[in-house]
């Protein structure tokens, strides 16, 4: 029978090469190896002062976890019965003008909860900000409960969660951009999704695509949808006729009808399918004379062609990224942030002429 060396034997072998190990850290701090390991991985119930002391020493001596050893031990742990590994906190920022949020963040939360459970973590949601839990109070709650993984839910306005003591947390933001503090992000790939959608429409014979966007929404997406739309127009000038983007302060029929009658798009793209009724009120027949595509399938109230932005998968991927940080003991705002983007999937619908 093949014998796999124990974790202690592996660590001892590493110590012989003067490489900082969990065992050497524990010896220097007069703590148990288990306490040191839990503190570095952000699991268990290690006192916050002790955990901070452990991380400071680990950084000072240049401790780096052995990825092969970590993978080996993770495999052993997964082979046992599912055990509790910690809590992931989902923080929703209360914005009076846009709260409570619609179904999209709820699906992100559902996907995150399911994936957290599969990985052995509990998942708890907190509402913070104005007229809700103050961030300093939330910070004390998270610390007292030994919670180190924080997932920030999408916010309409630029979120500011810098009041949390991020030296104690690994974090991820489930939207496009966060500056206070800078965190890794998981979001939809709006640019690529728009490009793929426009190519699909071009192959179906549409020549005057028109895009309607709420101004605040496009700003929050870092102009990715409008930029992709314009780039596609400019790269297909021999095939497509120019239709200016309608930027509306709010989603309403009057500015849409004025724009639709003036510029005569043959297919309309926006986020709410009640637009079909507005188009028909202007004399269009969908899909005989005009087409329509909803840019977020979660808003559908009728059968329509649409993009599924996969919020459930966004939540799951955010949890996977967060758990990875916890396992590596990566706390605080990273020196180099990354963005994980998921491309939307296509939903065929009766508001477009069928593909040939």
UniProtKB/TrEMBL annotation:
<dbReference type="InterPro" id="IPR000843">
    <property type="entry name" value="HTH_LacI"/>
</dbReference>
<keyword id="KW-0238">DNA-binding</keyword>
<protein>
    <submittedName>
        <fullName>LacI family transcriptional regulator</fullName>
    </submittedName>
</protein>
<feature type="domain" description="HTH lacI-type">
    <location>
        <begin position="20"/>
        <end position="74"/>
    </location>
</feature>
<dbReference type="InterPro" id="IPR028082">
    <property type="entry name" value="Peripla_BP_I"/>
</dbReference>
<dbReference type="InterPro" id="IPR010982">
    <property type="entry name" value="Lambda_DNA-bd_dom_sf"/>
</dbReference>
<dbReference type="GO" id="GO:0003700">
    <property type="term" value="F:DNA-binding transcription factor activity"/>
</dbReference>
<keyword id="KW-0805">Transcription regulation</keyword>
<keyword id="KW-0804">Transcription</keyword>
<dbReference type="InterPro" id="IPR046335">
    <property type="entry name" value="LacI/GalR-like_sensor"/>
</dbReference>
<dbReference type="GO" id="GO:0000976">
    <property type="term" value="F:transcription cis-regulatory region binding"/>
</dbReference>
<dbReference type="Pfam" id="PF13377">
    <property type="entry name" value="Peripla_BP_3"/>
</dbReference>
């Amino acid at each position: 029978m093949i014998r796999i060396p124990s974790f202690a034997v592996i660590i001892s072998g590493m110590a012989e090469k003067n490489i900082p190990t969990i065992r050497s850290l524990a010896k220097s701090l007069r703590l148990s190896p288990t306490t040191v390991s839990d503190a570095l991985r952000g699991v268990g119930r290690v006192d916050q002062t002790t955990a901070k002391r452990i991380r400071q020493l680990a950084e000072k001596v240049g401790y780096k976890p052995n990825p092969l050893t970590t993978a080996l031990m993770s495999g052993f742990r997964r082979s046992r019965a599912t055990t509790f590994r910690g809590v992931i906190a989902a923080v929703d920022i209360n914005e009076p003008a846009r709260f409570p949020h619609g179904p999209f963040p709820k699906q992100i939360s559902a996907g995150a909860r399911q994936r957290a459970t599969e990985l052995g973590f509990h998942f708890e949601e907190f509402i913070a900000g104005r007229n809700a839990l103050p961030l300093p109070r939330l910070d004390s709650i998270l610390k007292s409960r030994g919670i180190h993984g924080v997932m920030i839910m999408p916010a309409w306005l630029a979120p500011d969660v810098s009041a949390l003591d991020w030296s104690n947390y690994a974090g991820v933001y489930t939207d496009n951009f966060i500056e206070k503090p800078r965190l890794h992000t998981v979001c939809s790939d709006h640019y690529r999704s728009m490009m793929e959608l426009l190519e699909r429409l071009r192959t179906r014979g549409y020549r005057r695509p028109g895009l309607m966007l709420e101004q605040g929404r496009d700003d929050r997406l870092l102009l990715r949808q409008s930029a992709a739309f314009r780039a596609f127009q400019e790269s297909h000038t021999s095939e497509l006729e120019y239709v200016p983007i309608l930027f509306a302060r709010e989603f309403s029929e009057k500015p849409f009808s004025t724009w639709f009658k003036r510029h005569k798009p043959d297919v309309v793209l926006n986020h709410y399918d009640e637009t079909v009724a507005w188009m028909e009120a202007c004399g269009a027949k969908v899909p005989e004379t005009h087409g329509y595509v909803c840019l977020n399938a979660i808003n559908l109230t009728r059968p329509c062609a649409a993009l599924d932005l996969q919020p459930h998968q966004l939540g799951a991927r955010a949890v996977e990224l967060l758990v990875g940080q916890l396992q590596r003991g990566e706390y605080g705002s990273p020196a180099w942030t990354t963005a994980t983007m998921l491309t939307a999937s296509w939903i065929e619908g009766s508001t477009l002429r069928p593909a040939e």
